[in-house]
Amino acid sequence: MTSQEIQAQYDAFKQLGLKLDMSRGKPAPEQLDLSSALLQQLDGFTAADGTDTRNYGIASGLPEARALFASLLDVPAGQVVVDGNASLALMHDAIVFCLLYGITGHAPWSRQQPVTFLCPVPGYDRHFSICESLGIKMISVPLSDDGPDMGLVEKLVAGDASIKGMWCVPKYSNPSGAIYSAEVVQRLAAMKTAAPDFLLLWDDAYRLHHLSEQKHTTINVLEACERAGNPDRAIVFASTSKITLAGAGLAALASSAANIAWWQRKTSVRTIGPDKINQLRHVRFLKDRANVEALMERHRQLLKPKFDAVLAQFDAYLGGIDGVTWTRPHGGYFIDLVTPPGCAKRTIALAKELGITLTSAGAAFPYGNDVEDRHIRIAPSFPSLDEISQAAKGIALALRVAIAG
Ligand code: PMP
């Protein structure tokens, strides 16, 4: 297509008057409907051990909810806490506790300023917002398909005691879909860190969220850390936000016995117990791992055509264009569209004129700073299949117009 033809198609698209918000990776209503039965679930309030779930208590979560997450995360139930509905809140609290109190046996991070985190990029904007709001300095490290640049990570953590943590989304990462290889996980678990209280914030948000038929696995980070002699290095976070209800699911964390005891001590001050009614109805609805996997297959059936529709439009309109690439994720909620240098912001602005709201440029980088202005996060989950196909064409046209000039 000539640039005049592209411009003409872009102008014609504008006349459609589309209005689509694709800025966040939200489940679509029909995905939420898969868990409607959850809301009718409650058949008595009594948990397996006789606990009246309506009352206070059981701060670490109902035993059956901990057992369910233990089976999903492949960890012992005693090393799991189920608390609240948002894993992001647990990540936030873990970092705040480290800053204020220090993790077992170590001084508070706040007394050891500056505090620095390594941030594989492109990454999840809300991780970076937590760091920014808590005054934690961020250093970007490049993320490839099989994990972060480990040579660089090892060099940085060995030489700088201010590096206290690292964000990791080990499977189907947001937004590139990266899957950490066994070697990467082992190196993260074993690397020498100048900070003795260095933590891997292991955000396993997409552990069960496959898009392809191949169900990828990553090796167990808690076991890898234990084997490497760093048993307290990782805290694993997960939730059912994209399994059941994004606004009313369950969140959990898993770690070494020592870290779990630390978490229990710190959180006993802030709550007398979580919403155990929601925990009980989740356990009754989700039942066991096999049933959760069957539910995830139904999510996959709804999501896969949407991802395929985006990829088909990108293939048709962007295939072979110099400097333009995009990921073909095997799971998760996002596609990372990579533009020629200096084109992402302009593309997002041009898409906005077509009525398509995208995640703001630079969001996948600490401080919102995508130095080369190249990355656009595409979130295909929420719009209908027709809408997403149309929107992908609009985004492709916007990028072609941006490239043309
Ligand atoms: N981590 C990642 C990597 C995510 O993409 C998301 C949701 N977009 C979350 C965490 C949020 O999880 P939760 O709903 O459990 O807070």
Automatic annotation (TrEMBL):
It comes from Collimonas rhizosphaerae. The lineage of its organism: Bacteria, Pseudomonadati, Pseudomonadota, Betaproteobacteria, Burkholderiales. One of its GO terms (molecular function) is transaminase activity. Signal peptide: none annotated. Keywords: Aminotransferase, Transferase. SUPFAM superfamilies: PLP-dependent transferases. PANTHER family: AMINOTRANSFERASE, PUTATIVE-RELATED, ASPARTATE AMINOTRANSFERASE. This is Aminotransferase class I/II-fold pyridoxal phosphate-dependent enzyme. It comes from the Bacteria. InterPro entries: AspAT_Ic, PyrdxlP-dep_Trfase, PyrdxlP-dep_Trfase_major, PyrdxlP-dep_Trfase_small.
